[in-house]
Amino acid sequence: MSISYEIDPVHSHLQFSVRHLMVSNVRGTFKVVKGTVVYDPQNPGATKIQATIDVNSISTADETRDTHLKSPDFLDVAKYPTITFQSTKVEKAGSDRFKVAGNLTIHGVTKEVSLDVEEVSGEVKDPWGNTRIGASMKGKIKRSDFGLQWNASLEAGGVLVGDDVKLDFELEFIKAQVAAA
To answer: pLDDT tens digits, residue range 70-102?
Structure first.
């Protein structure tokens, strides 16, 4: 029997990091995400994951940089207001680990990506009667694969913005309420 969960955006954290000036990593987050997981404990391979991220909710703790990331140079939020993910394959990779493949759409470009899901918790009841689970998800993508090409060459060699984007998500889900028949 499948169980449906919804992402709890208040208790989920979507973080990314990218090399800056080839010397450090700049970290950022997306503050607004919606999505669902439909999970069958008897058949984990049948799990379906869907998520939509509001690109306008990007935050790197620098308003000028955030404005630039929302511009046509990068994410072009006016033209592409969301990032979406739709799983295509889920494989168990340990007692509380999974490999998830899926279609990630950024900047109007869809590519298959592979993500590692770990630290999947058991269900717990919160003080308000909701059933919750949590998980960590990690992966890496190349921004150039999604048409995000803007960059600047550095005098000493290298580039201003790295191509590799590390993803590090902490997710909490609330079990969907089943309507009484």
So the answer is: 999 999 999 999 999 999 999 988 887 899 999
Residue closest to 58 by CA, chosen among 27, 92, 23: 27
Cα separation, 33 vs 47, whole angstroms: 19
Homologous superfamily (CATH) of 3-175 is Lipid/polyisoprenoid-binding, YceI-like (2.40.128.110)
CA distance to 29, 125, 136, 156, per residue, from 169 (Å) = 9, 22, 6, 34
Q: Tokens 């509380």 sit at which residue?
A: 96
Buried residues in 143-160 as b, exposed as e (16+ CB within 10 A) = beebebeeeeeeeeeeee
d(CA 103, CA 101): 7
Asked if 100 contacts 113 with a C-beta cutoff of 8 angstroms, the reply is: no
pTM of the shown model = 0.90
Q: Among candidates 119, 139, 156, 151, which has minimal Cα distance to 17?
A: 139
Question: Mean pLDDT, to the nearest integer, of 109-129?
Answer: 93
Question: Any bridge partners for residue 28, and if so which?
Answer: 16
Distance CA 120, CA 101 (A): 17
